């Protein structure tokens, strides 16, 4: 990574250039590496090649803090000698370095033990319909323009509310990524994507009364970003709204997780039903396929073919064809999240999720954010979560939180210094509503989630 002055960065220096030509070059390297693996006696092999470039700028209190231009390359080779596996990687494209990488992977494989679950995914599962999903939108922005946007974002927030006393800064980021995955089944898949962001964090009040909050926007196209002024004003409003927080009495209350917090509840589900945790017996959802975990109306679907989806893909990290598939239907867990290795360890079939899930949609059964507040009536709105107090083996959940107290369906005052606790099994069963207020900034697309009852530890028993 190089940290450079804005004036020395040429316009569009971060672009990978002709992405199709670069993909052709990576595909050629992949094929040569596979041939070299075969010549070394490997019975199977796979190669991943990627290139990334980016520009990130940060400002604070009207001054430039950092300008970073990044350009990275990675090549990974994995070989199998029967069911013995070896991997090696490099960022050097010189012929001698590529040859050495293959030799190292083969040497490792020759000295490892057999693993009955090792090997490529089955050849019959390789993707054949390879598509793009409108994910390539380079942002032709130079450092000076990026800095102007960041400065305008921060200034809009500072100007919008006199209570904004300080700033944690504003940032603009843009990146391009291309990759090729190939294996000895004859599969070769290419992907390319861009991602851009604009964000701001502001501080309201002063001294011990200071409160910090922010806002950001992210998209595959710069056209999908909120304006700099809008982001700055939202950051200011969120920070100022947290001034003069109170505590609440310890007790059991309904808890409404704002959409950007609600996706963490889905993330805990994903971790618990992922193959690695399951075959290690380190999940509270071992042997839970076919079990009702949620209310009757609750549904989660994987949608890998969404245009401009953050995780849209024709194939997973092993070349297996992706497919639209329910994860939860009628409140019942339909399947696990498996690549071929974890599937073999469990005696099951891959779900085309090597490398993770590809866009999840959580079905809403309620209206917008205001209607979710009205439906809760009285309880806690959580807008920030802190700490890592989630035990995936038992499902026990305990995290620091901040947000707002709600009475009669209306926000009354900010609260902090509290802990929300429960058990994920019970929390999932107690979900009463999912809002239509979807936060679009993630591949997990969910609105706010209302959990009917949780323990909230505040200042005193009540």
Automatic annotation (TrEMBL):
It comes from the Bacteria. SUPFAM superfamilies: Putative modulator of DNA gyrase, PmbA/TldD. InterPro entries: Metalloprtase-TldD/E_C, Metalloprtase-TldD/E_cen_dom, Metalloprtase-TldD/E_N, PmbA, TldD/PmbA_N, TldD/PmbA_sf. Residues 250-458 form the Metalloprotease TldD/E C-terminal domain. This is Metalloprotease PmbA. Keywords: Hydrolase, Metalloprotease, Protease. Belongs to the peptidase U62 family.
């Amino acid at each position: 990574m190089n940290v450079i002055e804005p004036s020395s960065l040429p316009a569009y220096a971060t672009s990978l250039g002709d992405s199709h030509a670069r993909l052709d070059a990576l595909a050629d390297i992949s094929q040569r590496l596979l041939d070299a693996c075969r010549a070394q006696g490997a019975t199977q092999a796979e190669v991943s090649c990627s290139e990334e470039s980016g520009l990130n700028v940060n400002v604070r209190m009207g001054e430039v803090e950092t300008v970073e231009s990044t350009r990275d390359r990675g090549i990974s080779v994995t070989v199998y000698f029967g069911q013995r596996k070896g991997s090696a990687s490099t960022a050097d494209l010189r012929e001698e370095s590529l040859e050495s990488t293959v030799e190292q992977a083969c040497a490792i494989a020759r000295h490892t033990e057999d693993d009955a679950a090792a090997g490529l995914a089955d050849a019959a599962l390789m993707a054949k319909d390879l598509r793009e999903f409108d994910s390539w939108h380079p942002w032709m922005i130079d450092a000076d323009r990026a800095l102007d946007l960041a400065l305008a974002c921060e200034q809009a927030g500072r100007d919008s509310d006199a209570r904004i006393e300080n700033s944690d800064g504003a940032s603009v980021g843009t990146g391009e990524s291309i990759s090729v995955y190939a294996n000895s089944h004859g599969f070769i898949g290419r992907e390319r994507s861009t991602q851009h962001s604009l964000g701001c964090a502001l501080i309201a009040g002063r001294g011990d009364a200071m409160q910090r909050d922010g806002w950001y926007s992210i998209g595959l196209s710069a056209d999908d970003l909120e304006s700099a002024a809008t982001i700055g004003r939202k950051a200011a409003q969120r920070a100022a709204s947290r001034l003069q927080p109170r505590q609440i009495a310890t007790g059991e209350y309904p808890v409404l997780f704002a959409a950007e917090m609600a996706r963490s509840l889905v993330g805990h589900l994903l971790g618990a039903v992922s193959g690695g945790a399951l075959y290690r017996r380190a999940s509270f959802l071992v042997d839970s396929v076919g079990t009702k975990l949620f209310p009757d109306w609750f549904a989660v679907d994987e949608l890998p073919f969404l245009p401009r989806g953050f995780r849209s893909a024709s194939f997973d990290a092993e070349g297996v064809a992706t497919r639209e598939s329910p994860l939860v239907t009628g409140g019942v867990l339909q399947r696990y999240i498996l690549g071929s290795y974890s599937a073999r360890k469990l005696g099951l079939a891959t779900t085309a999720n090597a490398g993770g899930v590809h866009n999840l949609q959580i079905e809403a059964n309620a209206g917008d954010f205001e209607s979710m507040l009205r439906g809760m009536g009285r309880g806690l709105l959580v807008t920030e979560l802190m700490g890592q107090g989630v035990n995936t083996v038992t499902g026990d959940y305990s995290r620091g939180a901040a947000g707002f107290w709600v009475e009669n369906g209306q926000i009354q005052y900010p609260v902090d210094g509290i802990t929300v606790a429960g058990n994920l099994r019970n929390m999932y069963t107690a979900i009463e509503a999912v809002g239509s207020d979807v936060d679009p900034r993630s591949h997990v697309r969910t609105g706010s989630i209302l959990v009917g009852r949780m323990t909230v530890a505040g200042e005193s028993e009540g």
